[in-house]
Amino acid sequence: MAFRVGKQEVVRCIVDVPLEGEHGEALCVAYKTTTFWVGAGAYLRDDGYVARPRAESTKYYPLTADQIALYQSEETLPTPLPAYRLPTADYVWGYSLWWLLAVSVAWALIGRAIRERRRAKCAASAEGPVDVGPPELRTDLDRWVADQVAPRLGARERILHQAYATDRDMSSAGVLGAIAAKAYYAVLTDQRLFLLHARVGAFGPLRECIAVDEIPRGEVAAVSVEDDVVAVLLASGEERSLHVKTTKALSNQMRFLHHAPRILSGEGAPVQRASQPLMRASR
């Protein structure tokens, strides 16, 4: 649907009649509609009967009640005039602005309900015991993520939680934001937070690891959670934002969102001494 502002008139023939226009063109009895556009259709008006050149869809001659009565008396217009009905599509497009607004409001309400439910779950999780893993490996992608980190683990290091995340909210990122967005497979162990870099897939998480950040737990200065965003502040002052959404491709998204921040904040799992120093963007 193109963005429009102004009005659009449509004239549709109903039946041919033995009348001629000002230039001798053959006419038909038609009906005219006017759609008023403000980006989308705001209002549809039925303008009633007109006369239209049969070969020209944009030109018409108004028909007043007196003219209709005169032409009917001369039998150049049918009596009664043929009935017509506006197509359903005219109503859909003619009031599309209001459909879009209604959908937007409904979407906002659904989103609000989802956020409120997520907050309630987070609050309930915050009051309960900390889940220290390990993650469930139900899907192929679950297992693939665990396999990528396994060779990097220390002798007694174990995985607590893992999830897929992006560095921004993809639902509101826009085209340029989507192009610039980064994806991560975040894997939390009892020693480190691994961030496996990947591109953002158009149809879901991509099974790729472009680079790896290995962040010792001791380098995490603070962690905060708001809705589905985990903000990790490092001792260097750098902040990592992890937007964690539910996806059928991975099984541990909500467990990570609810419990990984608590563990990074010092709850639940004791911090083990890392066997390796901090490494960033290893390939």
Task: Describe the structure in your own words.
This protein is α+β, with helices and mostly antiparallel strands and 283 residues long. The protein is 27% helix and 34% strand. β2 (26-53) and β3 form a beta hairpin.
List the helices and strands and how they pair.
Layout: E1 4-20, E2 26-53, E3 61-62, H1 65-73, H2 88-94, H3 96-127, H4 140-149, E4 159-166, H5 174-180, E5 183-189, E6 192-198, E7 212-216, E8 220-226, E9 229-234, E10 239-243, H6 253-264, E11 279-282
Can you describe this structure in just a few lines?
The protein has 283 residues and is of the alpha+beta class. The protein has helices at 65-73, 88-94, 96-127, 140-149, 174-180, 253-264, and strands at residues 4-20, 26-53, 61-62, 159-166, 183-189, 192-198, 212-216, 220-226, 229-234, 239-243, 279-282. The chain folds into two domains: 4-94, no CATH class; 129-282, Pleckstrin-homology domain (PH domain)/Phosphotyrosine-binding domain (PTB) (PH-domain like, Roll), CATH 2.30.29.30.
